[in-house]
Acetylglutamate kinase (Arcicella rosea), 261 residues
Amino acid sequence: MKLTVVKIGGNVIDNPAFCKQFLRDFSDIPSPKILVHGGGKIATQVAEKLGIETVMVEGRRITDKAMLDVVTMVYGGLVNKSLVAQMQHFSDNAIGLTGADAGVILSQKRLVKTVDYGFVGDIEKVNSTFIDSLLQQGIVPVFAPLTFDKEGNMLNTNADTQAQAIAVAMTGTYEVNLVYCFEKKGVLSDPEDDDAVIAVLKPEDYEKYKAAGVINKGMIPKLDNAFKALADGVSQVTICHAKEVKLAVKDGVAGTVLKTE
Ligand SMILES: Nc1ncnc2c1ncn2[C@@H]1O[C@H](COP(=O)(O)OP(=O)(O)O)[C@@H](O)[C@H]1O
Ligand SMILES: CC(=O)N[C@@H](CCC(=O)OP(=O)(O)O)C(=O)O
């Protein structure tokens, strides 16, 4: 049986009209399906209002206690619950979850000698049986980019990584299609040209574009996760504009499709 996992980024969520259109389109995608959301841009804005500075290292937010409070409120509260309410309006029976709810995504606090990331989690285990029990009831799980550790901490977790880990965990039961939606038409071969979409991306091309600096910033962790998902058993991985989510799922052709070789 097929399962669709869609990840939606912060630039889409931050735009109410764009986000509403995306959720309307998402509601047309047949179940079973899962939504994973980011919200980094909104967390940065809220933190700024509270006088808390944002520092990102290799695509991950340094998350001290004050920032953990911000991301817990923003991702687990504001963003997650707003999405769930709108999805109910579009007749998707959504349930909003952090990884701590029902212990569904266990992480370990990120330990890197050179950088103190604070309350940032690297995912260890996803309870696919619990997720499947929701899917079996026709419920659409909506995951905030938060996980937890055995010490009882909430941990901030990169949303692209979380989508990849959930998608891979579900491959035991489903043929999984993973779609990363954002505000551009796909992975671009020319950052200045919004139409220069790379239709098919293979690992060797990725390395080439990365070395040339054409693929950079947030696209690097996104593609690392996307290729990992493909290597770990996800059937199809697409990176596309949020407006093309239905095309990506129904026709399997939109934006950039990843191939292993
Ligand atoms: N070659 C590229 N093609 C498209 N986007 C790119 C490329 N290189 C870097 N980017 C940047 O990557 C960003 C997407 O990553 P990120 O900001 O983490 O998105 P999201 O928050 O949606 O996960 C784009 O907004 C774009 O600025
Ligand atoms: C640890 C870490 O960096 N977590 C991310 C989680 C949100 C996210 O990934 O949001 P986007 O998908 O919108 O970028 C952050 O706080 O920015």
Summary: The first helix runs from residue 10 to 13. The mean pLDDT is 97.
